[in-house]
Design brief:
Helices cover about 45% and strands about 10% of the residues. It is an alpha/beta fold. Helix 2 crosses helix 3 and helix 4 crosses helix 9. It binds a DNA duplex through helix 4, helix 9 and helix 19.
Length: about 700
Amino acid sequence: MLAPGLPEVEAHPSHGILATLTPVSDHDLGWLDDLNPSQREAVTHGGGPLLVIAGAGTGKTRTLASRVAYLISQGIPPDRLLLLTFTRRAAEEMLSRAGGVVRHLGPIRERVWGGTFHATANRLLRTYAAVVGLSPEFTVLDQGDAESLMGLLRHDLGLSSRDKRFPRKSTCLAVYSRTVNGSEGLSEVLERCFPWVAGWEEELKPLFRKYVERKQKLNVLDFDDLLLYWKEILSHSDLARQLSGMFDHILVDEYQDTNRVQALILRGMRTGNDNVTVVGDDAQSVYSFRAATVRNILDFPQEFPGTRIVTLEENYRSTMPVLTTANEVIAQARERYTKNLWSNRAGGPRPSLVTCPDEASQDVHVISRVLALYEQGIALRRQAVLFRAAHHSASLEVELARREIPFHKYGGLRFLETAHIKDALAFLRVAENPRDELAWFRVLHLFDGVGPATVSRALAYMAEQIYDPRSIASFPGPSAAHDGFARLGRLFTEISEGLPVPAQVERVRRFYEPHVEKLYDYPRARVRDLESLEQIASGYRSRRSFLADLQLDPPNSTGDLAGAPHKDDDWLVLSTIHSAKGCEWDAVYLIHAADGFLPSDLSTGSRDEIEEELRLTYVALTRAKTHLTVIWPLRYHYRRRELADAHGYAQLCRFFTEDVRATMEQSAAPPLQPVADLETKIEGDHRLDLAQRARAMWE
DNA sequence: ACTAATGTCCTTTTT
DNA sequence: GGACATTAGT
């Protein structure tokens, strides 16, 4: 979380704050002149509900940051503002911008409550845990942990035998999560969103019941629980008034991507006053798989009567040619509330649509365009390659690595999801919450001769020892692990003795390193990762906040961690479209713009799903400031074992209709020179006998 | 009781 | 190429 230390919690009547404040001089508010009239209207709105419909690139971040600054300049104490954003990064950026504007009023970034719904829930629940029957040292399960738990119970209930073909654990969790977040009945969710598992309703119910029971027993919360418990607290009117009273204003970004539970939380958090600002764009709603619903933004004026609506339409990001293409794409949406975007940047190149013979040529083509713009002075960091699914960049990554072009990838598998990091964190989680069986499971599994049966006996033993992690030393486990358990007990003794967090991580690393070397083929990189973890830990004073932060606001790029030591480096951005939300680049390359990739063939079942893929495409296009390239390979190779060299032909993404194409420069990239041709040019004498050299290494 | 090897099915987006 | 159940081996 951004603001350390909880402010005192007490009921606080806060109506009419603005009216009672002394007016400030015009001089202090001179910065408002930099805003356009609509932005200024939003920023200087007094109290009461405000809905800002902000199209892509219309200065949404600036407006929200300015509003925070404005409210503070009007005398609202920063710690009585709550800014809910989609990511931690977004909150940080807005608060540092706001801080820059009202610098004379002191630091605000550390004082404003800012972060995601989930992180804020975590923070509030540490105080209000008792109310919902939790102890405050609860640990948070990330998606992987939650899936593991689901998998365990799935097995326990005898649902896992092959002939049953019961949905896999990740699907079970997805169904559960969707049901919880949408505040809907299981049958409706199954029918509408998971028709292929609808036959398992009678088995899923007891599975979910067990899942809920077990989480409570282990004193752990999953992501959904964070929201659910927050909502639950707010259903008590006294508590709702108390929590609501902590804040004079609440501001929510990306409101189109919030779900039903989040809307209920927002309503509950405004029982004392209705000073609430939400910002969003229904044309950019792309999280319905997480139960987000555009209804939240559409129904906001009914939910908060007297809402003032401000619409931002002038785009400051992109050139008119880019916007023309983007507008033409979103024009295909069935229903839409935001208007077409316009910009006074009339010039610039038309977006290009490039057909490549195959994937390899797509990679080469992207790279050569990137380098050409780089030569013209556009740094790599100001260029981004976007794609629908994380693995779509796989071959490009290989090619970039081969040419030693640095890149950071956003989305997909993250640092924290790698096994060695999860293992290391599991030690700390056990120390923090010894009832967290999932963490115990990971830790104990590392020792020789320990499998599921031993773990389960060990857990029973721990329960007898009133969950003192140090007592693992006296557990009579398999003889092979005897010595290891004794050392593990000593490790827990050490890290429970009030060591600083980085020192704790260091002890864990020392303990765990030999296991890394035994478990993995290339341990060096993984050990380096553990050292990075130590770096991260140095910013934390308590183990609890370190763990919670890592689960809730994980570093979200492959390069974020390595980034610190060589900050000046330049790198190309690779990102899923989802992770690109809210970002902008001078040049954007949308790759794999072929049907089946975009829209994903898993999302073409219903009109609503296709509609969301359309919005996703729109989001991708509107990230570009000046240079926009859409690429698709004509031919794909199948990687099937039986069919060694099979291939198929793709079709252009269906959203690039004739009308859209008319706004673009169309071209076809030439095929790459076949490798066979290169080979024949090499004279026999210069061929390297690799096989011989490989043998020679061992002679 | 645990590990390693084998076979089969599915393969998205994220807090 | 990964996840997961099953089977054979230590």
